[in-house]
Structure formats: C-alpha cells, structure tokens
Write a structure and sequence with these properties.
There is one protein chain. By secondary structure, the protein is an alpha+beta fold. It has two domains: 28-184, Alpha-D-Glucose-1,6-Bisphosphate, Chain A, domain 4, CATH 3.30.530; 194-345, Alpha-Beta Barrel (Multidrug-efflux Transporter 1 Regulator Bmrr, Chain A), CATH 3.20.80.10. It has seven helices and 15 strands. The chain has an eight-stranded antiparallel β-sheet with strand order 8-13-15-14-10-11-9-12, covered by helices on one side. A seven-stranded antiparallel β-sheet has the order 1-7-6-5-4-3-2, covered by helices on one side. Strand 2 and strand 3 (82-87) form a beta hairpin. Helix 2 (42-50) crosses helix 3 (52-58).
Length: 346
Amino acid sequence: MRFIKIITVIIALLVGIYAASMYFFVDDSKKFTIEKEVDFPLEKVFAQFNNLQNFTRWNNFFASSKSIAIDYYIPYEGQGSAISYNDPKSDDGGEMFIRYSNPNKTLRYQLFEDEDENPTLIDVKFSPVSAEKTKITWFVHTPKLSLLSRAQNFWTEDKFADNIDKSMLNLKNVLSNKVEKDNMLATIKYDSVMVEKEEEKMILGVNVSASNKKDALFKNIVMNFNKVNNFVTMDLGKKNDEIGYPVLITDADNYKDKEVSYFLGIPLSKKIGVTDNNFSFRSVNPTENYVIYYKGSYERRIRAIQQLIQKAKKDEMRFGDVYQTFIESPSEGSDVNMKLSLSVYK
C-alpha cells in the first residue's frame, strides 16, 4: 500500500513538473511564417489554392492518403467554399473553410481538426515576383492547447513546413502539365515544320503490334488508348491536370509495313509502382525534334511524317522515332488533332 502511495506521489510530482514547464516555457499556441517561390504565373498559382477541389489534389495532407474521403460543398471555390474529410486508416478527420478570398492577393483558411472547437488559422499571401514566378507566404496561427497537450507545439511548425515542401513538389507537377498543355494549344500552327526541344518524359503505356490495313490501325490505337486512359484515370486515380497528352511512339517509316509495332502511353510526372504487367514505363530522354501539327484523318498523317523525314534528310540529320502526340483524344470515326515530332541528331 505504501509502495502505491509512493508511486502516486512520484507520478503527481512528474505531472506537476511537466505542467509547470509547459506553462512557463511553451506557448499555448504557435505563430509562424513560411515562404516559398514557384516558377508559375500568379493567376495559375492562386487558382490552385482558391478552388478546394484543386487544392486537395496536390496538398500533401490530402493527396498522400489513398483512404481519405472528402466531401466538397458549394461554392466550390472562393469565399464560403468548404470541405469535410475523414481518413478511416489514420482516424484523422475535420473540416476546412475559405473564410476570405481576395483574388490573386490573399486567402484565409480555417482548419478544424478532429473534434477541436478552435481552428488553425492560415492566411496565405500571393505576390508576383515576375510574369512567370510567384511568391507564396503562409501566416499560421495554431489553436490554444491545454497544458497537457502543449508539447505538440514543439513539432507543429516542422510538420507544417514538411507538408508544404511536399505539396510544392506536387503543385509543380500539376502546373507543369497545365502550362505545357496551354503553351502547346497557344502555339499551334498547322502544316509548318518547326524545331523544338523536347524535355525528358516518363510515359506509362502498352507495347502493341497491329495490322496496318486501311483503318484497322487507328481502331487498334483507339482501343488501346481507352485501355491506358482508364487504367491511369480510374485505377491510378490521376486527374487531367496531373497527366500529359497521350503519345504514340513508333519507327519513322513503319507506316509502309503490313504490321506496325508501337508504344502508346500517357506521360506522368514521375514513375510509380504498377502491379499490372500489361502496362510498363518508357523513359524518353531530352531530344531535338522536327515538329509539324496535323489535323485530319489518321490515314493521311503519312504526308506530314514524310515532310519531317524530307526535312531531316535535306538538313543531313539522322533521325529516330516519330512521336505522335494526340492533342485531342483519339476517337473512332473522328479526325485527329495531333503533333508529330521526329527526333533528329547529327
């Protein structure tokens, strides 16, 4: 009995020392500021923060969990928009609101975590550094914690900063695809041969051999595009702004053959684990390409490819594969809108 009393006194003493140290040396809430710069225009960056459906796609807190369930409430962007979330695996849950939105300047979020009645307040300021660069500043004010919970404030800032670092990488991947698509659409000039430098790509797709008779090849391409697109968007859960335009890679002159071998895939921001053996990754190294945009029936693309080959021969350049990038998804019975690229080198 005496032993139990001694243990009780020791525990009470330790709790008292802990409470006193928390009271005198640890603030009941935290205030901190984090700054980052991203290489994208202000308008494009702000839109990713102001729309919570966009926000949850790249913010690491939400995007890193495969089990999290999110409900979105109208309006879906700007002041008054809100979400509620629940993750059964981690038991995390809560609500998030946009309380104030000044377009392309500032946002104020309120985040209620679990059963907390007091929210974390997050003010975000957006400042243009240049036409293509934006500074983002987070002003974070965490809710007051009880004495016994106050130790959490030791790692709150580090945890928040780590989440931002990972989120900025995700945001870069999302906006890179958006900007690439916007730039391509803005610079289209059909039937003229141009020179472009192609950046490295990681493409997930399928290797195929198909008959080259009449429209059999295009029907096969449409079928395999649907197969790859369904796998990427449904099985892998990728959104349109996370992926690139579908690409078909083949030998430059195999349009003459009775059977055509090709690789058809969709560019992703990075290589991920894929358990389905029907799909594989192909890495495309940076290249210099002769490029021509083409719109019309798929069978008549051959003339555009021949233009690229003739240009390479005239310039005494060696050439490799042809990359057929579908600006509009291929659909049976429809014309194609595509970018044809011939990789060239000395």
